[in-house]
């Protein structure tokens, strides 16, 4: 299956005229179907006849509009797109309406049931701080189920926009979940959104989510939200290194 990473590797290899497509290191791994507006990658290249702007233009001529390189800069040898990151922000979009919207469908999860946004916001507060997120993560192969998966969530909130304000969409609400953490584990955001939507449906509350968090087990957990509603929005680094933004 074609991927963004493979297309970018091939384009960089052609532009830099390397003997093989170079290896990329990404700031955040994403499941198939997940979007990214603020992904950061690093790659080691031999000397090339381009500055950063020229390299970005050359790559965009091959890849746009499906894939776009917003910027390309030289970084110190010690920089690592994944390990040097200090925080990442993801956004999940839910189209809460009786009927789906064809234009929003590729980037949202359509939920027909009316959702209690206040209950979802109250439950979201439970996530702030450092917790063991084993209940909301797919475990990496080769690791023990007894090993904690500690992550520090520094920001998490829901907001919404009425349908009439979203490109003339019909009756409904576009719900937006933003979450920032030092790092994320596999399917963490999608699993959290799946559980929070269950709270919005009236099938639980903040106490229920806290109990689930403390259970440190995926047993009887809500299904993860669909991939297409999730987007990696930005990656934050120390001031001396690049920062991506939407």
Describe this structure in words.
By secondary structure, the chain is of the alpha+beta class. It folds into two domains: 80 residues, Alpha-Beta Plaits (2-Layer Sandwich), CATH 3.30.70.580; 149 residues, 2-Layer Sandwich (Alpha-Beta Plaits), CATH 3.30.70. Helix content is 23%, strand content 21%. The protein contains five helices and nine strands. Strands 2, 4, 5, 6, 7, 8 and 9 form a seven-stranded mixed beta sheet that branches. Helix 1 packs across helix 2. The longest helix is centred in the N-terminal third of the chain and has 13 residues. The model has no long low-confidence stretch (mean pLDDT 90).
Q: What's the story with the biggest beta sheet?
A: 7 strands, mixed
- Number of distinct helices: 5
Order of helices and strands: HEEEHEEHEEEHHE
Rg from alpha-carbon coordinates = 20 Å
Instruction: Say which CATH homologous superfamily of the largest domain is assigned.
Output: Pseudouridine synthase I, catalytic domain, C-terminal subdomain
- Report the sheet-strand fraction: 15-25%
Mean pLDDT: 90
What is the secondary structure topology, with strand pairs?
Blueprint: H1 4-16, E1 25-26, E2 35-36, E3 41-42, H2 52-63, E4 87-96, E5 109-111, H3 117-124, E6 129-132, E7 150-162, E8 173-181, H4 188-200, H5 206-215, E9 230-236
Briefly, what is this?
The protein has helices spanning 4-16, 52-63, 117-124, 188-200, 206-215, and strands at residues 25-26, 35-36, 41-42, 87-96, 109-111, 129-132, 150-162, 173-181, 230-236. By secondary structure, the protein is of the alpha+beta class.
């Amino acid at each position: 299956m074609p991927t963004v990473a493979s297309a970018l590797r091939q384009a960089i290899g052609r532009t830099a005229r390397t003997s093989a497509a170079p290896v990329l290191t990404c700031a955040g791994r994403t499941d198939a179907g997940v979007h990214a507006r603020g992904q950061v990658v690093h790659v080691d290249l031999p000397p090339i006849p381009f500055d950063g702007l020229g390299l970005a233009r050359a790559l965009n001529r091959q890849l746009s509009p499906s894939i776009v390189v917003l910027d390309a800069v030289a970084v110190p040898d010690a920089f690592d797109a994944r390990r040097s990151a200090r925080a990442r922000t993801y956004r999940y979009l839910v189209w809460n309406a009786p009927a789906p919207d064809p234009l929003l469908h590729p980037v949202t999860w359509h939920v027909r049931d009316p959702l209690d946004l206040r209950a979802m916001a109250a439950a979201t507060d439970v996530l702030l701080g450092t917790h063991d997120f084993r209940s909301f993560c797919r475990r990496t192969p080769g690791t023990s189920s007894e090993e904690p998966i500690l992550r520090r969530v520094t920001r998490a909130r829901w907001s919404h926009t009425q349908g009439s304000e979203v490109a003339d969409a019909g009756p409904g609400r576009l719900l937006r979940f933003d979450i920032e953490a030092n790092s994320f584990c596999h399917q963490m955001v999608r699993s959290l959104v799946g559980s929070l939507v269950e709270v919005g449906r009236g099938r639980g509350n903040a106490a229920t989510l806290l109990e689930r968090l403390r259970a440190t087990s995926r047993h009887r957990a809500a299904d993860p939200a669909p991939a297409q509603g999730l987007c990696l929005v930005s990656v934050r680094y120390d001031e001396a290194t690049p920062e991506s933004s939407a």
